[in-house]
Amino acid sequence: DTYDFGLVGLGVMGRNFILNVADNGFSAFGNDLDLDKVNALIQEGGDTQKVNASDDAKTFIEALSTPRKIMLLVPAGKIVDAVIENLLPLLDKDDIIIDGGNSYFTDTDRRDSYLAEKGIHFFGAGVSGGASGARLGPSIMPGGNREAYQHVKPIFEAVSAKYKGEPCVTYLGPKSAGNYVKMVHNGIEYGLMQLTSEIYDLLKKGGDFNNNELHQTYSKWNSGRLQSFLVQITSEIFAQDDELGEGKLVDKILDKAKQKGTGKWTSQNAMDLGIPVPSIDIAVSMREISALKDERITADKLYDRPAIEHMDKITLEKLAEEALYFSFIITYAQGLHQLADASNEYGYELEIAEIAKIWRAGCIIRAGLLADITEAFNADKNLPNLLLSPSFIKKVQSTVDSTRKLVAYAAKNGIPTPGLSNSLTYFDAYTSSRLPLNLIQAQRDYFGSHTYERLDRDGVFHTEWEK
Ligand code: 6PG
């Protein structure tokens, strides 16, 4: 019973995470039903003397020091419950189980209450950064019992990514706070990915950028204010040769985007909360439209589209950089707004500055912008929306005109850019003191006597409209 940390699920993420734990001076014991995975880990981690593994749950549990700290990196859903049931009879009071997968937040709440009754502490901890993040330093988003977190903290702080020496992990809040934050992280991820692909489409169709130019452009952007993991990998993607044929791989990839559900959950829950996140919603819808490839091919033949008026490369590139920066800001603003509201609704007591802070490195949505966002929420802990931060006004104001030009250009030329236009529309609506929704209230009262309020006096009114 000497190992500091236990990990169930020795897939790529699990194996990498455990090796990362060992690299940072802690001993770690792995468990998986698949003996091949167990042996692969022992071989890979053997020389460190700090890693061991077994396919037997009892051996695994007996190898761990108490209170046991056991992380699960298994697919979200029923498997998590099955693993918990399997471990439960072997555990002692105050042992800690950490679910590192993308579990749905209400599942985490259910497991948390169930395990609390048995004296076991449960954490939902989102882990972002893919396989290399798990190996070299992910961003970790843990939620659960604050006191129990103290046992996990030294290990998580050691293995996490560092931003200027600061660990990209912090205790976020009770119950499913960590899974909720990771879910919204993924919603933002969907939004940013959609935006980078719209910009790619515009550069390619509107400016005839070839893959090499796209590679150069995204790479240049990555050394400016758009610096981010997603812009960086986008630049690298355009440089990748196709090993199975001529040209670049990106042109051979089927344009149907898959999804595992976290982006959709973000949108669904935003609707439940009544918080608008249209830049995320449309990213989910676009994956759905992309999946309708056969229908799209049929429809393409039925309708004309305008001939594209080309724009000069330098002008287009400048508009694109500004529009991407603008819409990245809007997307983060929406996701963080959702987190602030969810925090009130579910009692998470989230600190938005702390969340932005642990997203600055390690995770998929890491970006230079997150340092600015952290500062904005540090300056005003109760900021309802990033767009209200004095430090963001200039960034947004100076890029919105280019976004208008680009969205108008895209509309005129039949290039779909719903992420950009939803971001712009969100901005225009959010910054309008008067919207035409007075008419909707009138219509509701007209056909359903739903009543309305007035600008000029208090109270609730109903009118017998002239029919
Ligand atoms: C991360 C990612 C990861 C997610 C994938 C795939 O933060 O490391 O968000 O958790 O599972 O990106 O998501 P989709 O399959 O839904 O695109």
Automatic annotation (TrEMBL):
<comment type="pathway">
    <text>Carbohydrate degradation; pentose phosphate pathway; D-ribulose 5-phosphate from D-glucose 6-phosphate (oxidative stage): step 3/3.</text>
</comment>
<dbReference type="InterPro" id="IPR006113">
    <property type="entry name" value="6PGDH_Gnd/GntZ"/>
</dbReference>
<feature type="binding site">
    <location>
        <position position="450"/>
    </location>
    <ligand>
        <name>substrate</name>
    </ligand>
</feature>
<feature type="binding site" description="in other chain">
    <location>
        <position position="102"/>
    </location>
    <ligand>
        <name>substrate</name>
    </ligand>
</feature>
<dbReference type="InterPro" id="IPR006183">
    <property type="entry name" value="Pgluconate_DH"/>
</dbReference>
<dbReference type="InterPro" id="IPR006115">
    <property type="entry name" value="6PGDH_NADP-bd"/>
</dbReference>
<protein>
    <recommendedName>
        <fullName>6-phosphogluconate dehydrogenase, decarboxylating</fullName>
        <ecNumber>1.1.1.44</ecNumber>
    </recommendedName>
</protein>
<feature type="binding site" description="in other chain">
    <location>
        <begin position="185"/>
        <end position="186"/>
    </location>
    <ligand>
        <name>substrate</name>
    </ligand>
</feature>
<feature type="binding site" description="in other chain">
    <location>
        <position position="190"/>
    </location>
    <ligand>
        <name>substrate</name>
    </ligand>
</feature>
<feature type="binding site">
    <location>
        <position position="444"/>
    </location>
    <ligand>
        <name>substrate</name>
    </ligand>
</feature>
<dbReference type="InterPro" id="IPR008927">
    <property type="entry name" value="6-PGluconate_DH-like_C_sf"/>
</dbReference>
<dbReference type="Pfam" id="PF03446">
    <property type="entry name" value="NAD_binding_2"/>
</dbReference>
<dbReference type="Pfam" id="PF00393">
    <property type="entry name" value="6PGD"/>
</dbReference>
<feature type="binding site" description="in other chain">
    <location>
        <begin position="128"/>
        <end position="130"/>
    </location>
    <ligand>
        <name>substrate</name>
    </ligand>
</feature>
<dbReference type="InterPro" id="IPR013328">
    <property type="entry name" value="6PGD_dom2"/>
</dbReference>
<feature type="domain" description="6-phosphogluconate dehydrogenase C-terminal">
    <location>
        <begin position="178"/>
        <end position="466"/>
    </location>
</feature>
<feature type="binding site" description="in other chain">
    <location>
        <position position="260"/>
    </location>
    <ligand>
        <name>substrate</name>
    </ligand>
</feature>
<dbReference type="GO" id="GO:0004616">
    <property type="term" value="F:phosphogluconate dehydrogenase (decarboxylating) activity"/>
</dbReference>
<comment type="subunit">
    <text>Homodimer.</text>
</comment>
<keyword id="KW-0311">Gluconate utilization</keyword>
<keyword id="KW-0521">NADP</keyword>
<keyword id="KW-0570">Pentose shunt</keyword>
<dbReference type="GO" id="GO:0019521">
    <property type="term" value="P:D-gluconate metabolic process"/>
</dbReference>
<feature type="active site" description="Proton donor">
    <location>
        <position position="189"/>
    </location>
</feature>
<dbReference type="InterPro" id="IPR036291">
    <property type="entry name" value="NAD(P)-bd_dom_sf"/>
</dbReference>
<dbReference type="GO" id="GO:0050661">
    <property type="term" value="F:NADP binding"/>
</dbReference>
<dbReference type="GO" id="GO:0006098">
    <property type="term" value="P:pentose-phosphate shunt"/>
</dbReference>
<comment type="similarity">
    <text>Belongs to the 6-phosphogluconate dehydrogenase family.</text>
</comment>
<feature type="binding site" description="in other chain">
    <location>
        <position position="287"/>
    </location>
    <ligand>
        <name>substrate</name>
    </ligand>
</feature>
<feature type="active site" description="Proton acceptor">
    <location>
        <position position="182"/>
    </location>
</feature>
<dbReference type="InterPro" id="IPR006114">
    <property type="entry name" value="6PGDH_C"/>
</dbReference>
<keyword id="KW-0560">Oxidoreductase</keyword>
<comment type="function">
    <text>Catalyzes the oxidative decarboxylation of 6-phosphogluconate to ribulose 5-phosphate and CO(2), with concomitant reduction of NADP to NADPH.</text>
</comment>
